[in-house]
Design goal:
Helix content is 34%, strand content 6%. It folds into 2 domains: 1-46, no CATH class; 50-126, no CATH class. The protein is built from 7 helices and 4 strands. The two termini are 32 Å apart. With 175 residues, the chain is mainly α.
């Protein structure tokens, strides 16, 4: 089995760690803690606006924002970006000091500061070329309020003891 992205590009997971033999999402309790945390966090971002677009347009014009397509950073310090702004993040990270925050939750705040001060990738800056191995099997980009099939139901069924035992922070969810 290989590495896969789920819902958004960026974070990659060992396929056999997140999916069972039938290709269904494993129960959260059967995932490693880091994987479980990332899967739960990821579900909060599917269908949400790009951070950079939101910084440009604000809540009042959130409909002008592109839906995020890629996620970078660590849980609780994620940066969600659309395809138009991914190159800005990659430029900042590779060329303008962003790598200093690799693995740190403050990555999001530092990128936001750089972006708000007018930081942008130079015209024509090459981002990443994403190669889809099986493009016919890739679902369409998520709409606002998208979800990871099976995860939302499992989260809704968790009681407080389960949430505590799994060490989950569900403060951003309506469960």
């Amino acid at each position: 089995m290989g590495k896969v992205s789920i819902g958004l590009r960026g974070w990659r997971f060992d396929e056999d760690e997140v999916f069972d033999a039938e290709g269904e999402l494993r129960e959260l309790g059967k995932m490693e803690p880091d994987t479980r945390q990332r899967i739960v966090r990821l579900s909060a971002f599917i269908g949400e606006p790009c951070d950079a677009c939101f910084l440009e347009h604000g809540q009042a014009d959130v409909d002008q924002c592109n839906v995020g397509a890629v996620i970078y950073g660590e849980p609780l310090g994620e940066v969600l970006l659309c395809e138009d702004h991914e190159a800005d993040f990659l430029y900042w990270f590779r060329e303008d000091g962003g790598s200093e925050f690799k693995g740190e939750t403050e990555l999001r705040d530092r990128f936001h500061e750089w972006f708000m001060k007018g930081g942008r990738a130079p015209e024509g800056y090459a981002g990443l070329e994403h190669v889809d191995e099986e493009p016919d099997r890739i679902p369409d980009a998520p709409e606002r309020a998208g979800e990871i099939p099976g995860l939302e139901e499992e989260l809704e069924d968790l009681d407080d003891d389960d949430i505590e035992a799994l060490d989950l922070d569900l403060s951003e969810f309506d469960v």
